[in-house]
Amino acid sequence: MTSKLNTFQKVRELNGWHAVAFAATLTERMKPNFQLFCESSEFDDEGQFHKSLESVWQWLSRTGAKINFALQLEKIEDVTPDSADFDSYGVYPAIDAAISLAAIMSLITNDEPQGAVIVSKLSQGSVEAFVELVSDESLSSQEIKEHPLMQWEVAFQTELLAQINSMPEGAASVKTLREMAKSEGVSNIGIEITSA
């Protein structure tokens, strides 16, 4: 539990560009969970999740493009699935990914200064729920913590935190972070990354 608390504390200390970049990298890593849900349940968000996440990366690249994040937030809220409408487990990681993206928008607009912490917790929460789902028996919090997927999630966030503070703002760092999010070829819960 200590490593989790340390992670959240360190995330809480991130500011501005670095907080958004941290949250965007975790959300990029959750994106396949949203995509798989859309494909398997015929939920059509018309590519809105992808477009909105791209607008965050564009903002992080410091291109000077004018992006209306209040509008982007509305669009993401419109395509956040409702668990009551679906009976498949996949809706839950998809909701976590969508809420993460909404938290980034609110972080950029200064409406939610703890947006990066929210994303950090949602990403770990997705893994925790998935570990419990695939287990044959109920697990203690210690057993969940020791599960390889949870260990990998905490290690990824720790590594990301170690690198992010020294990163300069701009396109070169964005490229590095996006590659880092996709480097394992799978999402935070092991869903294969099939497209960009």
From TrEMBL:
Superkingdom: Bacteria
Pfam families: DUF416
Family annotation (InterPro entries): DUF416, YP001051499.1-like_dom_sf
Protein name: DUF416 family protein
